[in-house]
Design brief:
The complex is a heterodimer of chains A (about 500) and B (about 450).
Chain A lengths: L8 E4 L2 E4 L7 H15 L6 H14 L3 H13 L1 E4 L6 H11 L7 H15 L3 H7 L9 E5 L4 H17 L2 E8 L2 H13 L4 E4 L5 E5 L9 H9 L1 H5 L4 E10 L5 E9 L3 H4 L13 H4 L2 H6 L3 E4 L4 E3 L2 E3 L3 E4 L4 E6 L5 H10 L7 E6 L13 E5 L2 E2 L1 H12 L22 E3 L7 H6 L2 E4 L2 E4 H14 L3 H10 L13 E5 L2 E6 L1
Parallel strand pairs in A: 14-15, 15-16
Antiparallel strand pairs in A: 1-2, 3-4, 5-7, 5-8, 6-7, 8-9, 10-13, 11-12, 13-14, 16-17, 18-20, 19-20, 21-22
Helix pairs in contact in A: 1-2, 1-3, 1-7, 2-3, 3-7, 4-5, 5-6, 7-9, 17-18
Chain B lengths: L2 E6 L2 E5 L7 E3 L4 E5 L3 H8 L7 E3 L18 H12 L5 E3 L6 H12 L3 E5 L2 H15 L4 E4 L2 E3 L3 E5 H6 L1 H4 L5 E4 L11 H6 L4 E6 L12 H5 L2 E4 L11 E9 L3 H20 L7 H9 L4 H18 L2 H13 L5 E4 L3 H11 L3 E2 L5 H13 L4 E4 L14 E4 L6 H9 L9 E9 L4 H8 L4 H5 L5
Parallel strand pairs in B: 1-5, 6-12, 6-13, 7-10, 7-11, 8-10, 11-12, 14-19, 15-17, 15-18, 16-17, 18-19
Antiparallel strand pairs in B: 1-2, 2-4, 3-4, 8-9
Helix pairs in contact in B: 2-3, 9-11
The chains are: A alpha+beta (about 500), B alpha/beta (about 450).
């Protein structure tokens, strides 16, 4: 990818297209050869000299940005290193200490350099040369990887397309053949991109862009752009992206980029199309355990028809007592997780979702179909409470989600008002006290407080205690406790 | 029907009813809007019956208990009162060295809620952290330059505040933005948009931007609510004078300068272009894609480079330094390369955007305590950093921006016993730099009249 300033795109009507150079264009090949020669001829020289040579090429070229972008690619294939010698930072300290008021006259300058050189047993010239040797532009070129001009041109084309796609709002991928489509699904999922399937044979994939709503995120944009090289090797693909491009007065307008497999020669088709990616690691670690429980599974089963289109589970697990679909999701927002849970609510067998615990926030955390994974993989409690009972005999009662509709009195000791929207007055009349978004039966409040007090001050222990009543730490202030924050981590609870 | 308000990565999600500024987000089946509308939505929520408006958006850090022992100057008191009357939102404009920080401290005390102070540079982070902890005797968090430590009073760089906006946007109730004229840029405006903080204070010495984007501060921060200029505050600043020092280009430099200028001016004449403001310059840049325009642009650059860096300027600096030996002197350049060139020549410390964090701190500390009496810098010291000991400034090269000039001047205006500050402008005679120097002093007539412009 390139910095935005090096994107060279042309708009015509409602369409946009980046500049793509033909790897066989003699003019482009000559240009890349001269850039490569400028680097190869500068081995041992400081970066500022290499850049000056590139500036000369830029000044001569019709489109200086093309030269700058190609040179950036060669720079990325080059190695620079600091000039050997005394540590520049330490050297500066000595010089500044020797000349607190600077070297106002040339004579003073010579004297300071001379005295510092004498203490180090070196020459004034060496001191002068080394003084700022740690600046980037002073680093010396060690070597430039041998590259074919065609490879650099292809990398340029790929970089231009990726830089443009980074700014896509939506991206639609369609396929002439089932194989390409299945492969693409696996890759898109693996990249953790937000997508939905659109009707068709085979269906098209609609990918959410990084700048789709209110905000843009760099990480997501980079991943979206990153799937392009994966696509190039797949059969019969077509891409249509809606991209916000600034017009001549700087106002952003949405334009369309269309690409298909015909662009292959510009980007270079990998010798062998890459194979479908395997299962994500978070699922692979589960497999031995599932086997031990007598379960079998199918990886990448056929897509499942759900409420609003197709879903793409990673696993279909068959256990002695039941079966389930399981899908691991990556860089999604909590709002999308919520939507995904809604969309898959009627799928049978049940459709389980494995997500990073950061995404399973608030009431989502309690959803029986959402399995939370931390850094070390799926959390033990989630496995025990939410997955195993669905597949094996035993704690099958954990399968059923508690009713969330109002009016099904009598309520339990604790009612989560976010999920059971009953007016507070009605709860109070029924003998409850309102603690944040929870209603707690008056008679058990004292018991809860005692239990919390005995778990102080460790927040985790307190959380564990609260969970027994299906309460969250947000009730603590209402129970008369104070959470002390250390940085962003709430760690200690005080009475 | 009840309303649920939640924070979602820099935006607000509202379920139940359409709130002010809400846009329907089909994907999550809820209304969505920027975090900055939180205050308005909360007021809107007050119109609902008790319990019907569930505000789960703000999760503020605990409110700090703050007391301020410092006595404010009359205009500072006036500024804070005006800000309070404006609903604790708005921008206060005071010249550099007039004590904007003290105004902010009083505002922070008045609000006494979790506060995030956002500043442009790491040096300013240091300065604010020190000031806040000294004044409030409280722990102060720091975000930026590798540090990530959150406290009810926290200071962050613009970059980090933007980077962390999704996760931190609902943790602070008060947002203070120093040098707030940077905020309306394409990316930094997201800070104002994504944080919920209903209380907002912007500080700057130079509100207006040449691109007119300062108009957006109205919506983002509440607009300008208080302003005082140098001429109104002379009692509180050091005495100072401005000295213009023109130097002659060497004959070879002059020939090269004039031929480059000619290519450029001929191009302008052929295309009937005139430069009346930055927008004209932008249109010139946009036209430089073709060989003719590119040649004109390169010639303009070359002429500018010669005017910025003639050999005689180094000699002029030597002369000034020898006249002020022993005084704390800051030398400003427009470009980084020129700063290093001069630092190499004078064997003096140099501070640019390339200087690493640890060395920055050490360099500034050394200059403050007098272990170094000269400091060469590019544009990074234009803003905010407090060096009360500095009394001499040498502007070796600079833009025509009045803002930059005022900021650079402000660096030497902190009052001190018997202090007499001097700002030297070293200019290439017979070049456009003379005009640039006039442009950057626009609007300072009253101040300049009071000093000897030799």
């Amino acid at each position: 990818m390139f910095p935005k300033a090096l994107l060279i795109a042309k708009t015509r009507g409602e369409t946009v297209r980046p500049l793509l150079l033909s790897p066989e264009d003699p003019e482009a090949v000559t240009l890349v050869e001269s850039i490569l020669a400028a680097y190869r001829g500068s081995v041992g020289r400081p970066r500022r000299e290499v850049l000056a040579r590139i500036r000369t090429l830029e000044d001569r070229a019709q489109r200086f940005k093309v030269v700058r972008a190609l040179a950036l690619l060669v720079e990325r294939r080059s190695e620079f290193a600091r000039r050997p010698g005394p540590n520049p930072r330490a050297l500066r300290e000595r010089i500044f200490a020797a000349a607190p008021g600077g070297a106002v006259t040339p004579e003073e300058r010579q004297a300071v350099l001379g005295s510092v050189a004498a203490t180090l047993g070196t020459t004034p010239e060496e001191v002068e040369a080394q003084m700022w040797a740690d600046l980037e532009e002073e680093e010396r070129l060690v070597a430039t990887e041998p590259s074919h001009p065609e490879a650099i041109i292809r990398a340029f084309n790929l970089g231009q397309l990726q830089t443009l796609l980074f700014r896509a709002r939506t991206l639609t991928l369609s396929f002439g053949e089932e194989t390409g489509y299945r492969e693409a699904c696996a890759r898109v999922k693996r990249a953790g991109l937000m997508f939905t399937a659109q009707e068709g044979t085979p269906p098209a994939l609609l990918l959410e862009g990084a700048v789709s709503f209110l905000r843009s995120t760099e990480r997501y944009g980079t991943r979206l752009a990153g799937i392009l090289p994966d696509l190039v090797g797949l059969p019969g693909w077509k891409l249509e992206a809606k991209i916000a491009v600034a017009d001549s007065i700087g106002k952003e307008r949405v334009r369309t980029l269309t690409l298909d497999a015909g662009v292959g020669p510009y980007l270079g088709v990998p010798a062998e199309p890459p194979k479908a990616s395997g299962l994500p690691e978070s699922l692979q670690v589960l497999l031995p355990g599932l086997r031990a429980l007598g379960c079998t599974w199918e990886a990448h089963p056929s897509p499942v028809v759900a409420a609003a289109g197709l879903e793409f589970p990673d696993l279909k697990i068959e256990g002695p007592a039941g079966s389930a679909y399981l899908e691991a999701i990556g860089y999604w927002s909590p709002a999308w997780v919520e939507k995904k849970l809604r969309r898959t609510s009627s799928v049978h067998p049940p459709y389980l979702i494995l997500a990073n615990r950061d995404l399973a926030v608030g009431t989502l955390a309690d959803d029986p179909r959402l399995l939370r994974a931390g850094k070390g993989g799926l959390e033990g409690r989630e496995l025990k409470d939410k997955l195993i009972p669905r597949l094996t005999h035993g704690r099958a009662e954990g399968l059923v989600r508690e009713p969330t509709t109002a009016g099904s009195e009598p309520w339990g000791d604790v009612v989560n008002l976010a999920r059971t929207p009953v007016p507070g007055t009605r709860m109070r009349k029924a003998g409850y006290v309102i603690l944040g978004h929870f209603a707690v039966r008056e008679t058990v409040v004292g018991e809860i407080q005692r239990a919390v007090r005995s778990a102080l001050p460790d927040l985790e222990a307190v959380e564990c205690t609260l969970r027994k009543w299906r309460l969250e730490p947000s009730v603590l202030p209402h129970l008369g406790f104070l959470i002390r924050w250390k940085g962003l981590e709430a760690t200690v609870v005080e009475a | 029907m009840s309303i649920l308000l939640r924070y979602d990565k820099g935006t607000l999600l509202i379920r139940g009813e359409k709130p002010p500024f809400g846009v329907w987000d089909e994907r999550v089946q809820a209304y969505r809007t920027f975090g900055m509308h939180y205050g308005d939505i909360r007021r809107w929520g007050e119109g609902f019956p008790p319990g019907a408006f569930d505000d789960q958006a703000l999760e503020p850090l605990p409110a700090p208990v703050l007391e301020l022992a410092e006595k404010l100057r009359p205009y500072q008191v006036e500024a804070v009162e005006q800000w309070q009357r404006s609903g604790m939102r708005g921008v206060i404009v005071l010249p550099t060295a007039a004590g904007k920080t003290h105004v902010a401290l009083e505002a922070i005390r008045a609000v006494s809620r979790s506060t995030l102070v956002v500043v442009p540079t790491l040096d300013l982070v240091d300065q604010w952290v020190k000031k806040l902890s000294d004044v409030f005797k409280s722990r102060v968090g720091r975000i930026g330059g590798g540090a990530f430590q959150i406290e009810p009073l926290t200071v962050s760089t613009y970059d980090s505040a933007l980077l962390r906006a999704e996760s931190l946007g609902n943790r602070f109730e008060f947002l203070v933005v120093d040098e707030v004229h940077h905020l309306p840029s394409a990316s930094f405006r997201h800070i104002a948009e994504m944080y919920l903080a209903p209380y907002r204070l912007g500080l700057t010495a130079t509100y207006e931007r040449a691109d007119l984007l300062h108009q957006e501060l109205e919506a983002l921060f509440g607009g300008k609510i208080f302003e005082r200029g140098y001429e109104e505050l002379t009692d509180f600043l050091a005495d100072f004078s401005l000295v213009k020092l023109p130097v002659e280009l060497a004959p070879d430099e002059l020939t090269e300068y004039e031929s480059a200028r000619e290519v450029f001016t001929n191009y302008l004449r052929r295309h009937r272009m005139r430069f009346r403001g930055p927008w004209d310059f932008e249109s010139f840049i946009r036209r430089s894609w073709n060989p003719e325009g590119r040649e004109a642009l390169l010639s303009w650059r070359k002429a500018r480079e010669i005017a910025f860096n003639p050999r005689a300027k180094v000699e002029a600096v030597r002369t000034i330094l020898s006249r002020h030996r022993g005084e704390r002197t800051i030398i400003f350049t427009e470009e980084t390369a020129q700063a290093y060139l001069l630092a190499r020549e004078l064997l003096a410390p140099c501070l640019t955007y390339r200087t690493e964090e640890e060395e920055r701190r050490e360099t500034l500390a050394r200059f403050k305590d007098g272990r170094s009496r000269i400091l060469v810098t590019s544009r990074v010291l234009d803003e905010g950093v407090d060096v009360p000991e500095a009394s001499i400034a040498i502007v070796l090269s600079g833009s025509g921006s009045p803002r930059q000039f005022r900021q650079r001047l402000g660096r030497i205006l902190r009052p001190g016993p018997g202090k007499r500050a001097v700002l030297y402008e070293v200019l290439s005679a017979d070049t456009t730099e003379m005009g640039t120097s006039r442009r950057r002093k626009r609007g300072m007539g009253a101040v300049l009249a009071a000093t000897a412009d030799r």
